[in-house]
Amino acid sequence: MQGELLRASQSWPPEERLRPDRSRSDCPVLLSPSLVLRAPHEEDIDALAHLANNANIATMVSRMPHPYTAKDAADFVRRTKTGEIGNCVYAVTRGDNGAFLGCCALEPQQDPRTLEIGYWLGEPHWNKGYATEAAHVLIDMAFRTRSHIDHIDARCRVTNVASKRVIQKCGFQFQGTGMIQCLALGGMVAVEWFRLDRKTWMSLRSWGELR
After folding, report:
1. What domains are there in the chain, each with its CATH number?
2. Pairing between strand 114-121 and 151-157?
């Protein structure tokens, strides 16, 4: 899913507070009721390769190859550590047992006031609310810790109904359509573009209003 939030900071419940990650001080570990978002580790490589090697996922994101091998997963983890990809790249994991579910990220855009959110989850973990939960805390972090950011964008394929549902639950508004390159398909695909601005984020008192 290619994207693939808002709570007044003073009203955050304890389980969603940010705690610092000394290795990535600008990308703190994020906690939510069910999830922990943290930096990808070498221990994730096997699960990452297993879940990402799925055409149903690769054809819905822009830069994931298919087939997806353990070498691809190892290279992805290495590049996240060196900062070669993304701004804040996270492994999405379950809070109760640490299971790897997928990934999400914030990426800088040409406009320095804008970030883009992207996310994907392994197919066994679809339709459980994890993508929306991860997106909530990731976008909250972006607006709370980056005062210069005015907008967060999300894009998804026009055929990706599930991703579009996550985006809309997070308060994004439709902006238009376009085309992006899809590595797995070897060509361009049609996408819809959505945007969440800081004023909208601040106006929504609780994510519960959007669920």
Report:
1. 9-204 (3.40.630.30)
2. parallel
